[in-house]
Design a protein that fits this description.
The complex is a heterodimer. Chain A contains 12 helices and 12 strands. Chain A is of the alpha/beta class. In chain A, strand 4, helix 3 and strand 5 form a beta-alpha-beta unit. In chain A, helix 10 packs antiparallel against helix 11 and helix 11 packs antiparallel against helix 12. The longest helix of chain A is centred in the C-terminal third of the chain and has 29 residues. Chain B has 24 helices and 25 strands. In chain B, the strands form 5 sheets. In chain B, strands 6, 7, 8, 9, 10, 11, 12, 13 and 14 form a 9-stranded mixed β-sheet that branches. The two termini of chain B are 55 Å apart. The chains are: A alpha/beta, B alpha/beta.
């Protein structure tokens, strides 16, 4: 079995950091950043010599290109140190029966470089009290949401939040110390209703993790700060805006548009999509989403191929569910947009991948995994209906 | 999708960014970004009410980072080259002409902005075109402007009226619905260094995007012509198709002299006539056709108030379609087949695209009715031109007054000005020689302080007799020799000359009256090391080849005029040049081995080696009557190639700067048959006005001839390579981005320019042949264009780390 693992490291061009030596044949992925701003990845294959900063910069010049330069310029055009303290934030972590993962997340949250924030853990239909014990030890607020469903848990967190801004992350995510500050500062641009950030892998040690990150595309949305104005709503591409383990909203504004949709996401038959649905509704309600790559969260991807297969199956059905709910609330033009987006998704993503894999041999994702997502997509419509029925039953 | 209104804002990167507010009345912000007073580009920011400085900076650098890098690199290189001196060149007098009709409110706004100009015009003329009331006249009464009333309707007629009345050397046009930037007329001096510039256009940005009509107009292209300086050279681009891209009449500056060459605006085109617009296109087209140039300089910008109502916009769209086709019809009528491209573009490309996207309601589609208006316009265009001409019947067009012949201002000649001998080598050009000798008689310089030595080199046309018959006010010496070439003829002339200062004049150059005085003046304070190079503007007969030659020569002289020019051997032209005998003899005189080819460059090298200094005397004017025979010009390339090889053999260090260094490895491509009948083929192409094939044909023939010449000189490819390799290491010159300062380059040897940041090498300009004459602008353009994001990244890393280390 070839060694698929990729070691991860970070390198700050602004601080003259040194890099560890890389063993021959080992692969190393370096997240290059300049202070708080991530600039891009540089991939290396070790030859036994220690990697010098000069090597890295030489290798990175082409791939990081003008981003390094843009970063220097950006700092020149803004007055440094003018930022006042970022506004206070409530951080909501939803969890279920993963106390050891949760503990790591809370540890990272305790190290946030932010003057005023609270952490709320929402335990979703727990089967034991390990999470409660962890929370007590860490000294964070602990809530229980007895009904299953990630979006229900998110809404419970929203209701319990003290501060005006609510940030969400997951128990398998490890926020960077500057994460909360960057998200909170994003709201100083008026009109922004939601700020999302960069998700980078926390480890790439197993085949499944490497496949998810490199072949499937991972969860990262790139290194370019992006504004998604309300007009983007009609493109129906909420997945471009961010991911659920790294997002923040204005509390009242999110409540006004109805919070998260309890029909969606993990714990319901739809298996996901609550975050994307929220992004889409923020845009449709005239809000703007800001993507800030300097709000960094490290995420532990699924370690085994069977878990990954399950996740891609979930992704498939979740995306159909997101489109389905959007269709349900749209007017005629909106429905056309949803159908058009659905067709494009099927053609360019679901069907193109197996074709690329089989015919042109230019797809790294194994057929098994590709088909898992397709399978999820095929069942998505029915599962959404089932989820609605179950939701109605629970509410009744 | 309904059109969105946008707030138009300008932000400058030279000051700290401030939060940008977008009021609720707007859907988005259109941000024009400036740095160092130059526009970088535009940015659309939607969905935000207040944009933080942080976010502005991030979006700006994301979009314009590379352009900012290029600007920084260019600024450092221009400083190193001394080109910053261009901005200090004297500003010519400018007349601003505004044509208006029944829009006093717009006019008042425009006049207000004109009063805030940093470089004030010498006068502002408002031409009121067939007004229906007195409002414009009243408005102008209490302002420092000249008000003219033109009773005949038509914008082009009003423009012509303004031109005729203008006093300034430059005539700047803008429209009454425009607000000009305070820097609109800045730094015009250096544009005039190029005598071939026929128009200087600039950026026309929207003043506001409030109403749907304004948004649709801007979405549909507006006046946007990019953010990079561009030169449209009439000897290279098709005039009809480039005219529209070169600029717009709302922001253009013309040298007044250009109207004497190409005439005034066509009165049957333009607003106020049935043809509605395109008067500016027609003018640009004629300028290009005359082999002149149009410079588009986005730093020269104005804000244009687009029409606010739908009715006005529809009329405008109809007008654009109509006038474009009216213009095409006019051009076709004048025999320009390339004008057919306009209808092909409208009907084959533009309108189908508009109609399709209007039907599909794409995000940037214009509503269908506007596309249909354009279509109707294009169909009506030719008919409207006809009507326009009918309407002009019986109205005499405005004509330019004949330029009054200016008498030469006699030069004050002080006693210290040296006496000089004028040496004229000649070979069978009796007519020109007689004219030249006459012109020498008409010099402002006292005849008793000059003598003329005419060296008749194997003349068989009776030159000697013709000269002897002349009655000349100065002493004339005749030397006759039997066809030994110009180099030896000059040597013989110098030997016969009595004075220490010698002026070489070629027999095809007719000197202006002040020329000799200018030469003498240049040497007045010199220490005998000065080589004064005169200015010989070529005389063109309007044929394409003469226009190409004229452009080549004018570029040659323009480079020498740019402050900070590195004078090298290729600047040495012996046609109108003065130097002392001691400098000439010190360098060893002309080398007869280089007869008829490159003897000037060869002498230039030795003069520079012996410490001579070249200066360009722009007042020493002699009109160059070029040999316009294409076939002979092609043949000359061949002898020059051989001369280049000889030159490299004699002076190895020059090899790298000679043209053949760019031809290495192409020797096998020499195909003499490509040159057969070149003149007839070129004439045929010119007759049918097919410009690009003509240019390709001529360039190919020149290249072939040059390659053949290399073969004649016996230089095998290996030998040429060895010659180039033996040139030795180029002289390294450093431009430090962190601390750019003026470079001084040695006159001889190839230069390798290295760009460094705090001691680390960022990029290197390879010293390969960029043209034998040093051209900073070319070097800078090439360096800036070729600079990769990686170079910017390298600078960024050094700066980040330097900052971190300083911070520690």
């Amino acid at each position: 079995v070839p060694n698929v693992a990729i070691d991860l490291a970070e390198f700050d061009v602004a601080a003259a950091a040194t890099m560890p030596a890389v063993a021959p044949g080992h692969r190393l992925r370096v997240l290059v950043r300049s202070g708080p701003t991530p600039l891009g990845y540089v991939d290396l294959v070790g030859d036994g010599r220690p990697v010098g900063a000069a090597d890295l910069v030489r290798l990175g010049r082409a791939s990081l290109g003008g981003r390094l330069w843009a970063n220097v310029l950006t700092r020149g055009y803004t007055l440094e140190g003018r930022d006042v303290d970022p506004p206070a934030v409530s951080v909501v972590v939803c969890t279920r029966d993963r106390a050891s993962l949760l503990d790591g997340c809370l540890e990272a949250l305790a190290a946030q470089d932010h003057p005023r924030y609270e952490v709320i853990v929402v335990d979703n239909a727990p089967r034991d009290d390990t999470a409660r014990i962890v929370c007590e030890r860490r000294g964070v607020r602990y809530l229980v949401e007895p009904l299953r469903g990630l979006d229900r848990a998110r809404n419970a967190g929203l209701g319990a939040a003290t501060f005006e801004l609510v940030a969400y992350t997951d128990d398998d995510a490890r926020p960077d110390p500057g994460w909360l500050g960057a998200l909170a500062n994003g709201f100083s641009a008026e009109g922004v209703q939601c700020v999302t950030g960069l998700v980078v892998p926390a480890e790439l040690q197993t085949e499944a993790q490497v496949l998810f990150e490199d072949a499937y595309g991972g969860m990262g949305k790139g290194f370019v700060p992006t504004v998604f104005p309300p007009a983007r709503a009609r493109l129906m591409r909420p997945e471009r805006c961010g991911a659920g383990c790294n997002m923040a909203f204005r509390r009242l504004e999110l409540a006004r548009i109805g919070g998260f949709d309890p029909v969606l996401d993990v714990g319901t038959p739809t298996g996901g999509g609550g975050d994307l649905d929220a992004f889409q509704r923020v845009l449709e309600a005239g809000g703007t989403i800001l993507y800030r790559p300097d709000a960094i969260v490290r995420h532990y991807h699924r370690r085994t191929v069977s878990e990954l297969r399950r996740q891609l199956y979930d992704n498939g059905r979740a995306y159909v569910a997101v489109l389905g709910t959007a269709y349900g609330r749209a007017d005629r033009a909106g429905r056309i947009a949803v159908v058009r987006r659905g067709a494009a998704w099927i053609a360019s993503w679901l069907l193109a991948r197996p074709v690329r894999r089989v015919v042109r041999q230019r797809e790294e994702l194994p057929l098994l995994l590709i088909l898992a997502e397709l399978q999820g997509a095929l069942r998505g419509r029915g599962l959404l209906r089932r989820s609605r029925r179950e939701d109605a039953a629970q509410d009744g | 999708m309904s059109p969105r209104s946008a707030k138009v804002v300008a932000i400058s990167l030279d000051e700290p960014l401030v939060p940008l507010e977008v009021e609720a009345a707007y859907d988005e912000a259109v941000v024009f970004v400036f740095s160092h007073g130059r526009p970088l580009g535009r940015l659309r920011i939607a969905g935000l009410r207040v944009v933080t400085p942080e976010l502005q900076a991030a979006l700006v650098t994301e979009k314009f980072g590379h352009r900012l890098w290029q600007r920084e690199l260019r600024a450092a290189l221009e400083l190193a080259a001394g080109l910053d001196g261009l901005a200090q060149l004297p500003v010519p007098e400018v007349t601003v002409v505004i044509c208006t009709r029944n829009r006093p409110d717009d006019l008042a706004r425009c006049l207000d902005s004109l009063s805030a100009l940093r470089t004030s015009p010498v006068e502002v003329i408002v031409v009121d075109s067939a007004p229906s009331d007195e409002r414009a006249a009243e408005l102008c009464a209490d302002r420092p402007v000249r008000y003219l009333m033109e009773p005949v309707i038509g914008q082009s007629r009003a423009r012509n009226r303004g031109i005729v009345e203008a006093r300034g050397e430059l005539v700047a046009f803008t429209d009454d619905d425009v607000v000009v930037d305070p820097g609109w007329l800045d730094a015009l001096g250096h544009e005039l260094l190029d005598p071939l510039v026929g128009a200087i256009t600039g950026l026309v940005a929207p003043l506001e995007l409030e109403t749907p009509a304004q948004v649709i107009f801007e979405m549909h292209g507006g006046f946007d012509r990019g953010y990079e300086r561009t030169m449209f050279d009439g000897t290279r681009v098709g005039p009809t198709t480039s005219a529209g891209r070169a600029g717009a009449g709302a922001n253009v500056v013309f040298p007044r002299a250009v109207f004497e060459q190409v005439g005034l605006f066509a009165e049957d085109l333009g607003p106020g006539t049935p043809a509605r617009a395109s008067d500016d296109n027609d003018m640009f087209c004629r300028i290009l056709e005359a082999g002149l140039r149009i410079v588009y300089e986005p730093a020269r910008f104005v804000w244009h108030g687009h029409r606010r109502t739908e009715r006005e916009l529809r009329e405008l769209m109809y007008g654009y379609g109509a006038s474009s086709l009216a213009f095409a019809t006019k051009r076709l009528g004048e025999g320009d087949a390339s004008a057919l491209r306009l209808p092909v573009w409208w009907w084959g490309e533009h309108l189908p695209g508009d109609l399709l996207s209007a039907l599909r309601r794409g995000p940037n589609a214009i509503p269908l009715r506007y596309a249909l208006d354009e279509l109707r316009g294009t169909l009506a265009g030719p008919w409207l031109l006809h009507r326009s001409r009918q309407s002009r019947k019986g109205i005499a067009a405005i004509a330019l007054p004949r330029p009054s012949a200016s008498s030469p201002t006699p030069r004050v000649v002080s006693n210290e000005t040296p006496a000089l001998s004028i040496v004229i080598p000649t070979h069978n050009r009796r007519e020109l020689l007689v004219r030249l000798l006459d012109a020498l008689g008409a010099q402002t310089y006292p005849s008793e302080r000059m003598e003329v030595v005419a060296v008749l080199d194997g003349c068989t046309d009776g030159s000697a007799g013709a000269i002897r018959a002349l009655d000349l006010p100065y002493r004339l010496e005749l030397v006759e020799q039997d066809g030994r070439g110009a180099a030896e003829a000059r040597g013989a002339g110098v030997a016969a000359a009595r004075e220490e200062l010698v002026l070489f004049v070629d027999d095809d150059i007719i000197l202006e009256p002040g020329c000799v005085a200018a030469h003498a003046d240049a040497h007045r304070q010199g220490d005998g090391t000065i080589v004064a190079l005169g200015y010989c503007p070529p005389v063109s007969d309007g044929s394409w080849w003469s226009l190409v030659l004229r452009a080549w020569w004018e570029d040659h002289y323009r480079r020498k005029r740019i402050p900070g020019h590195r004078f090298g051997f290729a600047d040495m032209v012996t046609g109108n040049t003065s130097l002392t005998k001691s400098a000439l003899h010190g360098a060893g005189g002309f080398d007869p081995a280089f007869r008829g080819r490159r003897e000037d460059w060869e002498l230039g090298i030795r003069l520079l080696e012996h410490g001579s200094r070249f200066v360009h005397c722009h007042d020493a004017v002699g009109h160059h009557h070029l040999d316009l025979d294409l076939e002979r010009a092609v043949a000359r390339q061949r002898t020059e190639a051989a001369g280049d090889v000889e030159l490299a053999r004699k002076h190895p260090s020059t090899a790298v700067s000679l043209p053949f260094a760019g031809y290495l490895g192409q020797r096998h491509a020499a195909r003499p048959e490509l040159m057969a009948g070149i003149a007839e083929r070129a004439d045929r192409l010119e007759l049918h006005r097919v410009r690009r094939p003509w240019r390709r044909l001529v360039e190919r023939a020149m290249r072939q001839s040059y390659l053949l010449g290399l073969a004649d000189a016996g230089g095998s490819d290996a030998e040429l390579r060895a010659l180039v390799a033996a040139a030795g290491e180029p002289v390294r010159a450093f431009v430090d981005l962190a601390d750019p300062c003026r470079l001084s380059l040695p006159p001889l040897g190839a230069i390798a320019l290295e760009v460094v940041e705090q001691g680390s090498l960022i990029g290197r300009v390879d010293p390969r042949y960029p043209g034998a004459q040093w051209d900073w602008q070319h070097v800078i353009d090439r360096t800036v264009r070729g600079s990769s994001p990686a170079a910017a990244a390298a600078v960024a890393v050094i700066r980040s780390r330097g900052g971190a280390e300083r911070g520690d």
